[in-house]
Description:
This protein is 65% helix and 1% strand. It is an all-alpha fold. Strands 1-2 form a two-stranded antiparallel sheet.
Amino acid sequence: MSEESAPTSERGRMTRRGVLALAGTSVLAGCNGLAELGGGQEPTIRAYDLPDIDPDEDPEPAIPESVPVDIAPDHFDAARNRVTTLLAELPMPLGPGDIPNGYIRQQLSDAATDATTGLNDARTAQTELVALASLQQARAEARYAAAGWAVADRDLSVDTLQQEYRQVVSEARSVRDAHEYVGTDPVRAALVHGRIEDILERVIDSRAPTTEENHLLYVAEWGETAESARAHLADARHLDEQFAASLPADAGTVEGTLIEAAETLLADVRSRRSELPPEPTAEEWDIPKHVIGDLHRDADDGVTQIADANGPASTVIDANRQLTQFQALDRLQERIDDGELSRPQSAEGVREIRSTAYDALEAALEESPAPELTRTAVTSAAWRVASTDWELARYEGEIDVSRLDRNIADYVIATAIGRAAPDVSKRTVETLERA
C-alpha cells in the first residue's frame, strides 16, 4: 500500500502519509488485520470504547523534532516560492489532452497535490524544523510533477537533471569537508551541528533513480531527486549560517569536545551492547516479548565508531538516544520480572496505558536538565505513539484483547523511554562538560 495505488518501486517516492500508512498496515498485518472479531474464550473490547481518535486525521507526534536555532523568514519564503513556481509550470488540472496515459497523469497530479499539502503542513507545523521538512518534501514533489510535465511538453532531457544532481552532491561534500564546529555551549552545538551533519549526509548518500520502466516517470524521479538534494543542501547551509550568526564573535571550536564526548559515550554504548541478553524468540509473542524484542532491536541499532557516523555531533546525539533505549530496556525488564506488565482486560485499561505514555513523554522534557537533548531521544517514541493511535482508530467491532498486544507494547515502550530520557540526558550533558 502506498499513497497511490501503484507500488513504490514504480515511483521511488513516498510522502509522510504514505510511509505512516504503510508502516501501520504492515504492523497490523502481523495481527491478522484491523477488524478482527472476538471468537475465542479471552475477553473482548469494543472498538467503539477505545480512545476517541479521529481516523481521518494524520498522526502527529506529541513531541515534534526541533533544533535550537532560528530559521529566517526569508528562507521559508524562498522555499515556498520555489514550490509555487514549480507548480505554476503545470497546466492544472492535467487532462487526457495533456498526458494521454491515465496512470502517468495520475502520478503527476498526485505529486502536485502532495506538494500543495506540504505547503499547508508547513504553515501549521508545530516547530520550524518540522516546517522545513514539509517544505523539503513539497519541493521534491513539485519538481517531480514539473519535470514529468516538461518531458511531455518540451521533451526535457534527463541529462540536465543528472548533471544538476551530481553538482549538488559535489557541493555537499565540499560543505561537509569545510564544516567548522563553532560554538560556546557544547550541548547546543551538538544539537545544531548534528542536524547539519545528518542533512549533508542525506544528500551525499542519496540514491539516484536506476530503473527506467517509463521514460517520463524516470525523468520525473530525477527531477525529484535533484530538487530534494538542492533543498537539503540549502537548509544545511542556512542552519550553519544562522547558528554562526547567533554566536559571539570570539566563539571558538567545540570539535575536540564533541569528539571526546562521542568516544566516551560510544564506549558506554559498546559496553551496554555487549551485555544485551539474546533477543527473545517464541512462536506466540505476548506483550512482554513484544516490548523486549522491539527495544532490544532499537537499542542494538546504531553506530559504535565515530568513523561510521555522520560526524562527532550526530554521534553524541545518537549515542544519547541509544543509551536511553538501554535504560528503558532495563526498566521494562525489571517490571516484567516483577510481574507488573500484563495485558489490559478492558478499554479503560487501554486508555490508561495510552494516557500514561503521553504523560511520560511530556514530563520527559519538563524534568530534563537539557530539554532539547532529551527531545532527540524521545521523538521516535512519540512517533511510535502517534502511529499506534492511527492503528487504534481503524479497529472495528469486537476485538480479542490479545489483538492489541502490539499496540499496548508500543505505548509501554514510549512510556519507558520517556521516563528514562531525563537521567540519560543529564549524564550526556556531564560527559560533554567534562570533555
